[in-house]
User: What shape does this take?
Amino acid sequence: QVQLVESGGGLVQAGDSLRLACAALGRTSNFYAMGWFRRAPGKEREFVASISRSGGVTEYADSVKGRFTISVVNAGNTLYLQMNSLKPEDTAVYYCAATTFVTLNGRYDYWGQGTQVTVSS
Assistant: This one.
């Protein structure tokens, strides 16, 4: 049984920073990678960033490169997403996810409930 619990969302202004956290509970030893996805109003869910369980490999969507930083601590039990220079188009529900497959942006097994990030202009 695995549970992913996100926190840290909120309402900020354009240019501000925000850090999301995800606590992974249960059997996390078989995770290959963890990641963040988001769903904006009226749009499909999209990949944001991912990181290997060891933290050695990361991948980012072009839209967030240079602004967002993903990190993992405690052998994959805690995942972070540091978001800087936020833009109104970053407004979305952000989801934490984990995968046991050998992939960084492919199929994910486990999902959190999501946390709302709203960026005002």
